[in-house]
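User: Hi! Is it possible to get a structure for several chains at once, not just one? Here's what I have:
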Amino acid sequence: MTNTQTNRMPQEPMMLEEVKIRLAGDCLIHLSLSVAAGEVVTIMGPSGSGKSTLLAYIGGFLPPAFEGEGRVWLDGKDVSSLSAERRHIGILFQDPLLFPHLSVGGNLAFGLTRAVKGRAARKASVCEALEAINMAGFEGRDPETLSGGQKARVALARTLLSQPRALLLDEPFSKLDADLRVRMRHHVFERARSEGLPTLLVTHDEEDARAAQGRIIRLAPNGMVG
Amino acid sequence: MRFRPLHSAPMLISLLMLGPVLAGLLGALLPTFGWLPVLGGDSLTLEPVRALLATPGLARSIALSLASGLLATLLAMLMVIGLLSAWSGTRLFRWMVRMISPLLSIPHAATALGFAFLLAPSGWIVRMISPELTGWSRPPDWFFPHDPYGLAMIAGLTIKELPFLLLVSLAALPQIEPRRTQNLVRSLGYGPMVGWVHAVWPRLYRQIRLPIFAVIAYASSVVDVALILGPTNPPPLAVQLVRWMSDPNLSMRFLASAGAILQLLVTLAALGIWWGGERMASRLLGCLVQSGLRFQRDEWARRLAASLNVAAVLLMLLSLGGLVLWSFAGFWRFPDAVPVSLSLNTWMRQGPMLMEPLYNAVLIGGLATVVGIVMTLATLEAQSRMGKRSGRSAMVILYLPLIVPQVAFLFGLQLILLTVNASYALWALVFGHLIFTLPYIFLSLSDQWHVLDPRYMQMATALGRSAWAIFWRVRLPMLLRPILTAAAVGFAVSIGQYLPTLLIGGGRWETITTEAVALSAGGNRRLIGVYALMQMLLPFVGFLIATLIPTLFYKDRRGMTPADR
Amino acid sequence: MIARPLTAGYSKALITALPPRQTRLTVLKKAVLAAAFAALPSMVQAGAVNVKDWPAVLEKAKGQTVYFHAWGGADRINAYIDWAGAKVKGRYGVTIKHVKVGDTANVVSQIIAEKAAGKEDGGSVDLVWINGENFASLKEKGLLLPMSWAPDLPNYQFADVKGKPTLTTDFTVPTDGLESPWGMAQLSFYYDSAITKEVPKSATALLDWAKAHPGRFAYPKPPDFIGSTFLKQLALELADDPSVLSRPVTEENYKTVSDKLFAYLDALHPYLWREAKAFPDNVSSLKNLLADGEIEIAFTFNPGDASAAIANDELPDTVRSFTFEGGTIGNSHFVAIPFNANAKEGAMVLANFLLSPEAQARKQDPSIWGDPTVLDITSLPNEDKARFDALELGVATLKPEDFGPALPEPHASWMERLEKDWTSHYGVQ
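Assistant: Yes, the chains can be modeled jointly so their relative placement is included. Here is the combined structure:
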């Protein structure tokens, strides 16, 4: 790991305090939760139960149709009034969403925190990150030429390079084939733990939940905690 | 709340479009009721309206305008439906798609002139087969351009609007996943064409409705094409009204203003009729769904669609070819299939005179395009950040200049600009062009903008990037191709502007188009050929650049090449 | 801009020459005002042109840019204007910009718009090529420079005012020195001698010819300029007493003339091109129709047109001209300065140059343009006379002596009535 990342390990938990999300007046979600550093909490529920909306609220990009309230505590600070880019909450979606106009290295550099200064240092950080996912020398590659697993790993590495203080996973394994899914789960959870990140996983796959080895919160179809 | 300049962009842009059109309409409305003091009209009267209604043949003129607007649009739309539903993904289809962008950049007037020369009794086709096949050593006396029913005009408009509608459809289609949908419906036993009409068309139509409205408005108020191909006794309303506007007897200006207002009503009526037609068509389609008819044998319809589309493209190409040939022609007498001699004379004589008009056209078009792109991006970015859709309904105002006929408000607009002492300045001219380029730029870009997966932006935000950084480093590069295409469209629109350049520029800004129109008054086909080609060249270069830059820039980025259709 | 330093000097001179009663303050105010006006040069010049003092005009014109709005539909005319522009720039330091217009009415619109917007100076049009109804309209609405300037141009002395009454009466409207003559025009007909052997020499003969050659004659749709001229030609020729046409129209004299005219047209129309269900737009479409062999007889106002078209490969070299024996309508065309022209002096310098024997002779050269001169050649000095003698007319150009008498344009009121009636008779088919 690079120096900058090992320097400051978040020790504080992520806390959700009385988070409520409404759509057209109906309450979809009402939840309080604390996720310890390095812990992976899984939220399960059928589609439409609002689990992705919850992640959007925490991340800071709740669609305007929804109304959200309640606090999100991170590193001992209430981040719920901060704009999304200042929250330092990393997110991974079903799709790796690598920027198609940038090379693999470009994607990682895009994610790399501004705290790493100087061309050489930034380049080195990107190289290290690639080595860490067994993809050394891939800097110049077109992301479109990568395999599904490689893309997923680059996406994770990119998020981690931005030094998040918490990690949100929005069904990140659902589009991978079975074999790859097992390896990717292992990889992601392993990294999240070693970085000491409070992590929230949203899924409807029981296997995911089991592999996360953490608490499981089940949302009823109406979104209330069942 | 903090003041955010960006967030006022949608409002600003709407005002910018609304203001000139309303002011211009007011400038036409007052003389309609007799108010234009400079010409002695200083009291309100219904006289101009009465004079207008007493014009012989007015009903026919109106009918012609309505018919050309509606029929040309309908035919072009049916041809697009036929091509997309029956031939998507085939070699024929790819050929069509390759042909249309260059065809789109041919100016309307040039298409019409080429078309007239191709099909006239003394035209190229008759020349090619005479006297060998026909025995004609003199042209036959058949009624081709200027036929009283306006068929020549409608045909000309149809083949000219076909590429435009096809292009906007192609831009909208990827969001609909037509292949998969069509296959699904076919698996239910529907013929490919009717299946496409059931499954893809309604959604596609919703996307291209606005461009279709613009085509109706354009075709119902077009002047140049109608002059070249349309009936003469009486002509369509727009032609009639431009004649009044240019009558040496200045009191005719009152009549002309009343005509301009009538033209607006006629265009609105055409749109209204179309709107009614939409309801009926959707009800019919509903009945068809209910009936469950499968139309499995649509071979004949497929063939018809193919031949109509191919014929349209061939007609355009031949029209263009005719113009090219004329520009190099020595003497060319009927019924010779080709000129007696070819020469560079016309090109050599015109060459030096082309430079300034070309430069001016590029300058004005370039500025209008850059400003248009910046304003469009500002508006779209503001919409995205505010995250509300409310801004989008206000955007309808943006299309006002496309719906309101140019002839109805330009004279009034000129008056206003003169009053604020702004006319003839470059910025005023750029502003005048902007009124027409901006809607097209917005039209071509906004869908692409909204279609970009918002999770890319969320991802970038989560990586700690500010909104502006995301705009510059994610949105712009990812949308490079559509942005450049929109710019090329805007540029092409600017190049084609005649009346705004003339009226607002006060004749001080010669562009390739003002020169082309002035010279076409002389009817010299060699000159028309040269200028039409030059008029076509600029937009073509624009589209070429718009295609090449992203290709060069992203030659190692497979994700950035346009999806294979 | 040299205006500022000059004004400063001027105000200083004023102060020293101060009449004792005036305070320095008012003078200062005046000086400030003068400086303010100097920033808008045209305002200082407004109405201050004394054409009789020609050297002063030349002095003021130097450095001006003249926007000359002139029909730009023929490249040979455009090339001629280019040439004139280069000469004027070289000799007098006046820059000429030819604004090519498709329709002079657009220029009229522009001047109206400027008037409506209160733009009393610094207008966009400095000089406009004009005649007939457009001139009459501008004159009537007071949209021309309100002074008689043309007769004071140095070259006006050569203008054939006596021999060519149309130089001072433009379509029966007195020019009053508001426009300066540029060229002459007379209606003439042309045909392809390789195809057509016999041509009609009068209106009645034309009707018989058309009956014998159905679909091979056409005239542009009035109110197109040349189409209306054709109607006027017929009206003059068919009228029992053509002199009534030079007076304003009255109910009874209108009926006698129009009855004959429309009876003639009713008889002619079934034999026209497309059976008169469509009409060509203008003189150029008429020429194209002849070139394509769709019609056999066409006509034009510019006697050099056919020869120039041959030189341009637009018409076959077998085309020849003819005219009606009883004479055809003739008129003149002019250049005029709008009321708010920005470069009035420059416009006058150009108008004067266009009237010079040098420019007029070149204009009459069929290989250049072929537009007949407005000058009285006999009044010219010998070397200028020689310029004209050296000209060779084209094969398809009638010599001046072959033209019949030039018939005067009818009074403008006739045209309005006839055009209106024409539209109600034939405007809708």
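The first strand of chain B starts at residue 35 and ends at 36. Chain B has a mean pLDDT of 85.

User: Great, thank you!
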